[in-house]
Amino acid sequence: MVFNLIAKNIPKLATLNTRVLLNKNTQFLIQNRNVAMSKTINVFFIDRNGDKQKAKAKIGTSLLDVAIDNNIDLEGFGACEGTLSCSTCHLILRKEDYEQLKAPNDEENDMLDLAFGLTPTSRLGCQITVTDKMDGWVFVVPKDVSDARG
Amino acid sequence: MIKSLTSLKYIGHTKNLSSFRTTKFYLSTKKLDFNPKICIVGSGPAALYTAQYLLKNLASNNQVTIDVFEKLPVPFGLVRYGVAPDHQDVKNVIHSFTETLKNKNVNFFGNVNIGVDVKISELLNSYNSVILAYGSLGENYLNIPGEKEFSNVISAKDIVSLYNGLPNSENLKLDLSGNKAVIIGAGNVAIDIARILTSPVEKLAQTDISNVALDLFKNKNKIEHVSIVARRGVLNAAFTLKELRELTKLDSVECRIDLENFTEVNIDNILNKLARPRKRITEFLYNLSKNSVKSKSKKVIELKFLRSPIEILGNSESVQGVKFKVNKYNFDFSNLDNLYDSEERLNSIPVFEDKSKPNEVLQCDLLVKSIGYKNVSIDSEIPFDKKSGVVLNDKGKVIGKDGLYCTGWIKRGPRGVIVDTTSDAYETAQKLFSDLTNDQNSTQRPGAEKIVSLLKERSVRFVDKEGWDRIDKAEIERGKLNGKPREKFQSIDEMLKVALEN
Fold first, then answer.
1. Name one GO molecular function term (chain B) (predicted).
2. Which helix (H) or strand (E) covers residue B279, if one does?
């Protein structure tokens, strides 16, 4: 709630594809955007068709930002715009990559519980901040959103 | 590398994930020899996610038109009028829906009541495909003595409508001058209402809560004790952990659950057999039962399980209490095997009246019934099945009615969060698209041209997307005056006045 209030009182950070990107980690993002806007690495998304898409990822942004910045076509992705209120930016990581990240907090786990196709290496894209070490990492968009009610 | 990621182990919602389908996620974009005209009845998440899928997959190769019909002058259904005002983050999905509505191939027809102003048969004659996405208009009843007899026995739906400013909700006779409220039902709506009833009014004042509700909460709310009471046991709680955790973090409120709720359940034995979401919520409730501090300074929200209401008590003035029978699980929990990692299996565990326990009475000054929405038919032409409460369909195609489809709550019943509608929307869009491309008899249809002439003939004033844009801008302006993100128009007349000013 405190973070929300802070987030809502901060002027628009960036408008990408007409979305205002506000994040629970907004303060963190501002700092990073200022110091490291220019530095990018490459990451890969595997979309729901199984097609691999390369994306330029700015250090310090979230993977949700990366998907939007690169026009990665992910239907319904990021519905709550990174405010930890939905699970539409659900991504699956490789085990070795997952283990390098700090464990998700309770609030992220609460939303992951509602995601389709939850795996032991699932994360929410909005909660992963891009760092140098992620160069070449692969993020799978779960395709089960389409047949979740089979 | 990729291979290792496609042979995944699932740890939640396993019931839904028996296999990966090999079908491509996107639909093929075959060129049709006519410009398909499609209409959607309703404008909430089910409707607009379906529109998004159709646009993406039909519009690239075809001049598709999607007309969205909405009973109210304004779009977005339960995102606008259901999601609680202090959950503005959830309402962010409106931005993406707004993009969809702004698409040049999409038209909006607000203030058009399908089934009354225009019949389904008229839509079917004018469009290639008609999609029902109007959600759940009705509600369930307790059907116990006293339900209709006493004042201040209120349906959750009416309170939700009141705080969200739904037109005509402002006349609700909701009396908050008493100290105690009981909410029957333990879903997220029950949690929403408990939270709103006990939240500091300064916090609510920063949301887009309706003025009528804000005034009521500011000046007339004396509720300090809320009991949320569920028929089934602690393993079947219908709310989600996010909402429960939020309750426990409110400064103004202490959230409690009594340890007795776990006496039958062999907690240490069963936790590891549950799917991850159920395990986490059960563990959380258990820890809450051990930790709750009995503070006297705070308001209290208390969770009670295994209680079925059998009679509502009151006097000539108002409701005074509810009589409950006490239930028990009729199940040997030492036999719980790993199959109970699905919600279906957990919900199949029977709950019976515990005849060894006397009935209990909970005193209350307000009784809220939060026992679920209910689907209704809006036109006798729709093959609506009263027993199952849904429109009979095969993967979204309405059975026995060519060209008619359904999606969202009217298709699968009133359950789940917004994201759950995406899978429905996809399935229905896929079915519709494959029917459209395979049907040799599909021809050009008149679409809105025909319907607009009918509306004019019948003197129905409708709001187009420019009209909605005027309402939207005006509401945001009004909000600024009060430090709110938006001040909704409470009446349909006001909305129409703003929308149709030119």
1. oxidoreductase activity
2. helix B276-291
Q: At B292, which CATH number?
A: 3.50.50.60
For the cut 60, the answer to whether the pLDDT of residue B80 exceeds it is yes
* Residue A6: inside a domain: no
Last residue of a domain, one of B351, B373, B395: B373
Q: How far apart are CA A95 and CA A114, in angstroms?
A: 21
Q: What percent of chain B has pLDDT over 90?
A: 75
Report the domain count for chain A: 1
| Residue B288 included in any domain | yes
Structure tokens at A84: 């930890």
Q: What is the pLDDT of residue B338?
A: 67
Instruction: Please tell me the total count of domains within chain B.
Output: 3
**Same-domain pairing of B338 and B225:** yes
**Residue holding tokens 């302006």?**
B477
Residues of chain A with pLDDT > 70, as a percent, come to: 69
State the smallest CA–CA distance between residue B179 and chain A in angstroms: 27
Q: Which chain B residues touch A19 with a CB distance below 8 Å?
A: 95-96
Kindly write down the DSSP assignment for every residue of B419-488, as one continuous string: THHHHHHHHHHHHHHHHHHH-TT-----THHHHHHHHHHTT---B-HHHHHHHHHHHHHHHHHTTSS---
Of B373, B398, B421, which closes a domain?
Answer: B373
Contact A117 B17 (CB under 8 A): yes
- Please compute Rg for chain B using Cα positions: 24
Mean pLDDT in residue range B456-463: 97
CB contact under 8 A, B95 and A81: yes
B146 and B118 in a common domain: no
Same domain membership, residue B249 and residue B200? yes
Q: What is the pLDDT of residues A41-89, one digit of tens each?
A: 999 999 877 889 999 999 999 999 999 888 886 777 888 888 898 888 9
Shortest CA distance from B86: residue in chain A: A1
CB contact under 8 A, A147 and B25: no
Q: Indicate which CATH number applies to the domain containing A48.
A: 3.10.20.30
Which helix (H) or strand (E) element contains residue A55?
strand A52-58
Q: Is B339 annotated as a binding residue?
A: no
pLDDT at A31 over 50: no
* pLDDT digits 0-9 by tens, B321-373: 999 999 998 888 777 776 666 787 888 888 999 999 999 999 999 999 999 99
